[in-house]
Amino acid sequence: MSREEHLAYEYLRHTKKFPAVWCAGCGIGIVMNALVRAIDHLGLEKDDVAVISGIGCTGRMPVYLDFNTMHTTHGRALAFATGLKLAKPKLHVVAVMGDGDALAIGGNHFIHAARRNIGITAIIVNNSIYGMTGGQYSPTTPRDMRAMTAPYGNIEQSFPIVELSIAAGAAYVARSTVYHAVELDKYITQAMRTPGFSVVEAVSYCHTTLGRLNKLGSAVEMMRSLKDNSLTVSAAQKLEAEERLGKIVRGVFHNDPDKPEYTRLYDALIERASGGGNGHEIRTSIKGR
Amino acid sequence: MSEEAVVTTSTPPEVEEKQEKRKRGPRGRVVIFGTWCKGCGLCAAFCPAGVLALDDDGHPYVIAPEKCSACHWCDTHCPDFALTVQPVERGGEE
Amino acid sequence: MTVKLMQGNEAIGWGALAAGCRFFGGYPITPSTEVAEMMSRELPKVGGKFIQMEDEIASMASIIGASVGGLKSMTATSGPGFSLMQEHIGYAAMAEIPCVVVNVQRLGPSTGQPTAPSQGDVMQARWGTHGDHPIIVLSPSSVKEAFDLTIEAFNFSEKYRTPVILLADETVGHMREKVELPDFDTIERVERMSTSVPPEWYKPYADTASDVPPMANFGEGYRYHITGLFHDVAGFPTQRMDEINPWIDRVNRKLERNLRDILLYDDSMLDSARTVVVAYGVTARAAAQAVKMAHARKQKKVGLVKLQTLWPFPEALIGRVARTARRIIVPEMNLGQLALEVERIAGRSKVVRVNKANGEMVTPRMILDAIEAK
Fold first, then answer.
1. Topology classification of domain B26-87
2. How far is C41 from chain A (nearest CA, A)?
3. Which fold has domain C265-372?
4. Burial C155-166 (b: 16+ CB within 10 A, else e)
5. Could you tell me which chain A residue has the CA closest to the CA of C234?
6. Model confidence over A111-163: pLDDT tens digits?
7. Which residue ranges make up each domain of chain B?
8. Interface predicted TM-score (ipTM) of this complex, two decimals
9. Cys-Cys crosslink for C217: which of A247, A267, B7, C70, Cβ 3.0 to 4.6 Å?
């Protein structure tokens, strides 16, 4: 097995056991594949990439990848990533999170990372369920669907990830699906090129929990459903509002590469702070970096 | 099954044979790494050309290699990196 | 040498800078906020990074991330924030990431009284995060000690690849005292042990002679995996007993075999003392005063132990004290937390608690009364 056969092999950890831990047909492996293609496309050195995850099925991704990887706590990947990015601003930091991890327990960290516009690429694998723990509903589970903690049907509305990201201040926001894997890696590439905070929502499915509980079919059928129910931004604009209900709209929704990125702003702050002295005598005893 | 070459008025037979091979030859060769395959069936279900079929265990095998157009749907969508599509010289043998 | 009138919280900040701290991620909370404000001002001057995170949970996560990126890092908080930080303190212990957590204790539980001192988080500092984990907890009783013990905290955290908690309190944090600070260039700084093996050979959690694995920083040529799951020497998650058991042994051993280095304390007049006062933090000041008063009143056989390291608990030291002392007095601004440890070890020695848990100080008079009580 070599890079010539499948470029992904260059980026997978040779000491890890494969196939990966996810269910047969799960979209997380497809996102991992897309991420690897994006990194390869960008020509990044493996030492210059960090992949950080939270907890859940998506959280199991980084261990398989031959980068600087961290599997942190539920919902907090972006907070760990913030510290790492500030310590090593030249690192390309990617945070991979599920919908529950990023938007429920991680919601606060999500909006603040976006608000700071810190140079992290957030990939949210949205399968609309808490898969790892057996299928409890998440902030993106559609209304009326059943889940292990919504036995009578979900009565909550779903977080609009794209609008949330833009409102919070992200520089780049895009959505695709695991059916559109090549489009996905294109968006991840663009996201990683963006200096500021980028969000790529990768719509997937969980056929073993949400799918089984709501009779949505096998992995093949749920994949087909992603294909049939998604459309591009321009196609969606031609539809009436009712026709858009339940559809997945794919595209780049926001792209502001010139928005000032947090670590660069802080570097400028350091310049200002180091330049102006305040005569504090202790400071003269402190060694600089 | 033998085919009688249909001789047209202007094209010599050997050139026509080459033309047919180019039109019908595969552009890609699917290589399956069985150890990593979990038998999810996505590749066979979505291959636009019907190159793959599933065996009794649900694992894919190449049933129609000549039809592969190297669209790479299978190897960009296999969650387990169990498939790759190798490029093939068009119009010739592998 | 610089002589300054300085606030305890400020001294903590200067101690951090002197120790080489170059990252602070925190959140404002009384009575610790001055540490954050000081670091926000001073860190950028030396090229360090300060960030006010959105909450204490994120603060603790950010200092772990920064430490993984190679910076000595610190956060500062008080009770309610300390409670929020527990999960990540456990993460740092599990992943063996050096970092310093300052808890300037205030009266609890819950919102309690933000501006009143307390020593109510002693047990929480040891056991606040779930699961069996080793930890180092230091307790300063003066502004100078706040400076010195912050430096010790950083050095311990780097040396032993462990989070270290600096358990101060509102009084020490907010008081102002004259301090003589040494030239920072003369301060001994311990750096995390780095590795020089070829990257493909590096094992982030390898068994070493010292029980502390060398730590490579992210982005410097060594790629590896860090997780809060139980992991093997490569950092990969494992459920194998032959990988989990050695980890548990090693991580606990790495502190237990170095107690001589870690257990800091001052003692006086212990020889043949029949009554010994064991105190820490701000209460140690009242204890010192009480013992002085007792001596002035001809109570000769009174000794004093001022603990600077609270955890690991100095069992051998207290055990020795218990052998000769008939009574051990433990004054604390709580309902008896360190006293539980002393009682556990005291044997036949009687342990007398002197407690206040309402934000008022334990006074020298209260301790003296306990000393003189028959």
1. Alpha-Beta Plaits (3.30.70)
2. 8
3. Rossmann fold (3.40.50)
4. bbbbbbbbbbbb
5. A15
6. 999 999 999 999 999 999 999 999 999 999 999 999 999 999 999 999 999 99
7. 26-87
8. 0.97
9. C70
